[in-house]
Amino acid sequence: MIERLLKSSIQLSKDILESNEWCRTALYDVINKVTFNSIYTHEMMIADKVRINSYYKAIRRYVKSGDIVVDLGTGTGILSLFSAQQNPKKIYAIDHSDFINIARKIARYNNINNITFVQTNSRDFKPIEKVDIILHEQLGQALFNENMIENILDLKKRILKETGKILPGKFELFLEPICLKEEYKIPYIWENNIFGLDFNFLKHDDEIEKYKPRFYENQSIEHHSIDHFLCEPQSILSFDLNKINDANEIPKFIEASKEVVQSGLMDGLCLYFKVIFDDEINFDTSPLHARTHWSNPLFRTESKHYNDGEIISFKLTMEDLIKRETWLLSIR
Fold first, then answer.
1. What is the mean pLDDT of residues 33-40?
2. Which pLDDT band, with edges at 50, 70 and 90, does 31 fall under?
3. 117 DSSP assignment
4. For the Protein arginine N-methyltransferase domain, which residue ranges apply (predicted)?
5. 325 and 205, same structural domain?
6. Are residues 217 and 106 in the same domain?
7. 247, 321 in Cβ contact below 8 A?
8. Sheet of strand 68-72, all strands in order from the earlier edge strand to the far edge
9. Same domain (yes/no): 319, 268
């Protein structure tokens, strides 16, 4: 009883904080700062060859001598270090985490001296001149959940030249019906019938509701757990930060229909995204492609068999882009 009350109180406090825009921003900053103070987080990111190779190629192509570059959320400083090799006029590497001290040491050890490290929140960053390139990798598992849109558009409005460029700027979001490998399937409790023991009544049991966590319908899956996609992958949303100026330009309600091309049991819909620097330099986080450090969110559904040619239609409502637990999926 006490434990349940404590959990409820903590959740209520969090909900109250998040209901206020200033408190929500402050709460996000604290959580983000703690997360990126972990050395293992940075080890995973720089071990991600898909990510690293794509950013390296893009920086080699787009950062020019004489450019002024801002690296938002510099972390280990890896993107600034790549940029420094292109001999730009100036590089600002900004991060509000204390980990920026490690980035300074990495640059110093590698005899790279043309980077200005600034420990600050991006909203408080005010350079004396406009910049040519905003470089970033504020990409969460669900694309939006590291506050990319608000942070980038704020910098774009305040410090980017009219001829400037956001790298990367273009993104596509995918939500694909999947069939999991048998050993990775986790049915809803009411779908179970184990050695004659029937759990089906729990589907309509009122008491079971209080035991469902906030992310009950939204889980994450391992890269190798998917057997196949039921449909041909097709993006449900695309946008270019170089072309939009307000977060409200990104739709929060999406409807889609997909034709089944490989029959099987649908265990849910898997979310992934594509990062596009240009037609030649891009990568995605599809669980069926080369592995990245991003895991894949899964919108769980009750298992249902679909045959080739059948249509799967769904609606996705993203009440708050940053908070994936507010995203609601309904299958029609």
1. 71
2. low
3. E
4. 173-319
5. yes
6. no
7. yes
8. 115-119, 90-95, 68-72, 131-136, 160-167
9. yes
Give me the mean pLDDT over the 142-167 stretch. 96
Each residue's pLDDT tens digit, 283-325:
999 999 999 999 999 999 999 999 999 999 999 999 999 998 8
Give the integer Cα–Cα distance in Å for 232 and 222. Answer: 21
pLDDT at 2 over 90: no
Handedness of CA 100, 105, 111, 116 (dihedral sign): positive
H or E stretch covering 102: helix 100-109
pLDDT confidence of residue 217: 83
Listed in sequence order, the residues at least 6 apart from 251 whose beta carbon sits closer than 8 Å to its beta carbon are 237
For every residue of 121-155, DSSP letters joined together read: -GGG---SS-EEEEEE---BTTBSTT-HHHHHHHH
The domain of 195 spans: 171-331
Rounded alpha-carbon distances, angstroms, from residue 86 to 12, 69, 165: 50, 11, 16
Per-residue pLDDT band at 49 (split at 50, 70, 90): very high
- What residues form DSSP beta bridges with 239? 171
Rounded CA separation 110/297 (Å): 37
d(C-alpha 141, C-alpha 36), whole Å: 15
Closest-CA residue to 73 (of 117, 115, 24): 117
Q: Does one domain contain both 26 and 42?
A: no
Rounded Cα distance between 203 and 188, Å, is 9
Q: What angle do CA 61, 64, 67 make, to 5 degrees?
A: 135
Structure tokens at 5: 């009350």
Contact 267, 179 (CB under 8 A): yes
Instruction: Give the residue from 288, 294, 293, 296 showing the smallest Cα distance to 48.
Output: 293
> pLDDT tens-digit profile of 219-239?
899 888 999 999 999 999 999
- 327 and 230, same structural domain? yes
Closest Cα partner for 71 from 147, 122, 112?
122
Where residue 215 falls among pLDDT bands split at 50, 70, 90? confident
For residue 307, count other CB atoms closer than 10 A to its CB.
9
